UniProtKB/TrEMBL annotation:
Coiled-coil region list: none
Species: Deinococcus carri
One Pfam family recorded for the sequence: AhpC-TSA
Domain Alkyl hydroperoxide reductase subunit C/ Thiol specific antioxidant: start-end pairs: 7-127
Highest taxon in the source lineage: Bacteria
Protein's name according to its UniProt entry: Alkyl hydroperoxide reductase subunit C/ Thiol specific antioxidant domain-containing protein
Xref: InterPro entries: AhpC/TSA, Thioredoxin-like_sf
Length: 212
């Protein structure tokens, strides 16, 4: 792994085609929310499928917890969709058959020259693609359990949501004064909140451009 990819650093804002063939930037998919980013081997790997099936079960909690999930593999468009549909995932799958990420991050799994995958990593990202935690999943037990992800996301949410504890006199006073900027959705439209909860990527607004 490249030396600068560590906790506290900003993960590169890669721009790759999704499962519909449309190029998407990671920052666009993340928006203003935490994100679980899974870099996988691909459709042939049973460890990836097992992790994805656990994430499918966990994803309902991510939806109501305002957390995004993205998976990236070195599969092509067809195989990426085979994997996504096969495990029942509803979040974006980006594909990188040219191995841009593998080469840029220095994570070639050199022990498998036949498939030439990435070493599977899972990143938990704060808003702004800031790395909160990373897990090396070369061995399956190196991958995060859903309990670990729950704890990571609790810690992130406590840090980034000013209304994490609304039962303080200060927060109640702000609400009573009509100062709603520190309360979810922090001035965003509920339309976009629900679009992101539904995973309707084609309708996402660019978080840097404001609502169109």
């Amino acid at each position: 792994m490249r030396a600068d990819i560590q906790v506290g650093a900003t993960f590169p804002d890669y721009d790759l085609p999704d499962h519909t063939g449309v190029k998407r930037r990671l920052s666009f998919l993340q928006g203003r929310d935490p994100m679980i980013l899974m870099l996988g081997r691909g459709v042939y790997c049973p460890k990836d499928r097992q992790q994805l099936m656990e994430l499918v079960r966990f994803s309902a909690q991510c939806d109501v917890g305002f957390t995004r999930i993205v998976t990236i593999t070195t599969d092509n468009l067809i195989l990426s969709n085979d994997l996504r549909l096969g495990v029942g995932a509803h979040w974006p799958f980006l594909h990188d058959p040219e191995r841009i990420i593998q080469q840029d991050l220095g994570i070639q799994e050199y022990t498998d020259p036949h498939n030439n995958p990435m070493i599977p990593y899972t990143f938990v990202l704060e808003p702004g693609l800031r790395i909160f935690k990373l897990y090396n999943g070369y061995w399956y037990w190196g991958r995060p359990s859903t309990a670990e992800l729950h704890q990571d996301l609790r810690d992130i949410t406590r840090r980034i949501r000013p209304d994490y504890q609304i039962d303080t006199p200060e927060m109640r006073a702000k609400w009573d004064r009509g100062e709603k900027e520190d309360f979810y959705p922090y001035g965003q439209s509920m339309r976009q909140v629900f679009i992101r909860m539904a995973g309707a990527v084609a309708q996402f607004d660019d978080p840097e451009a404001g609502e169109r």
